[in-house]
Amino acid sequence: MNYLSVRFRLDSYNEENAEILVALTEEMGFESYEYADEFLTAYIKEDLFNEDELNEILPSKEGGFSFNVSYTFEKVKNENWNKIWESNFQPIVIDDLCTVKASFHEGLPETKYTITIDPKMAFGTGHHQTTSLMMRALLKEDLTGRSVLDMGCGTGILAILAALKGGATRIVAIDIDPTATESAIENSNANRVGDEIEILTGDASLLASQEKFDLILANINRNIILDDIQKYSNVMKSQGVLQLSGFFAEDVDLIEVGAKAAGFEKVSVTIDNRWAQVKMKKK
Q1: Which family does it belong to (predicted)?
Q2: Is the pLDDT higher at 273 or at 114?
Q3: Which of 16, 195, 208, 220 is 20 to 30 A away from residue 150, measured at CA?
C-alpha cells in the first residue's frame, strides 16, 4: 500500500496552530504527523488523498485563522516508513507507571508496565496528548472483573495496557483500518498479551453482536464519537464508564450534549494543551 508524505508550511508556526491543522486534516485519513520547525509533515494512504478537499479545509487568514498554510506532497516508498518513524519515536514514561518504547530501545528505567510499540502507519504511541490522556485515565481504573472495549484501537496501545494491568474478564479492540488492526495484533503479540485481546476490523456496527461492557475507551475524533455514542450506550452496562478523547477542550460541551442524550453523565474533564479527555458514566 502506497502512502503520500504531505509537508505543510505554517507562516506563523507554534504548537497551537499545528494542532489546529491536525484537527482539521485528520478526518481526511491522515494517520501520522511529525512536527519540525515551521513544518508539519503528515502521512496518508495515496488512495485517500483528495487535494481538492484538502484545499477547502486548510486554514487561512482570509478564513478567519491567524495563519496561512502551504504544502507539497510526494510518494513514500513502503520500505522507507520504518526509517521515518524510528527516527522520530522517542521512548516516553506516563506518570512514572508506564514506559512506551519501540523494540529497538534499550537501557530504559523500569516502570510497573512496559509497552513495546512498533506503530508502522497506525495511530497511538502515547506521544500525542490524546493517547497519553487516555493512558492516564486507564491507569486509574481498577479492571478487576470488568470487560473492556477499545474503540478505534490504532496500534492497540490502550488494549495492551488494559491486558498488562490485569483483572479484566474480556478485552475487545476494534478499528476500521486493517493496517491498524494488523499493527494491533503484532503489538499485542510482541507484548505477550495477544491471547487476551480480541481484535476486530470494522466500525461501531460490530458492537451489535457484542455482549455489554463495563468500560469503553474511545480515542477518536469528535464527529465519529457523536455519530457512534448511542451505539456505545447500547453496549454499555448500567453504571459503566466511558473514557473519551480525540477532541479539543472547546468541543467538550458538544460531546456532553450528545452523551447526555445517549444516557451518559459527565464525571470529569482533563485538559492537556487544549486537548480534552472526558470520563462519562452510564446512568
Answers
A1: Belongs to the methyltransferase superfamily. PrmA family.
A2: 114
A3: 16
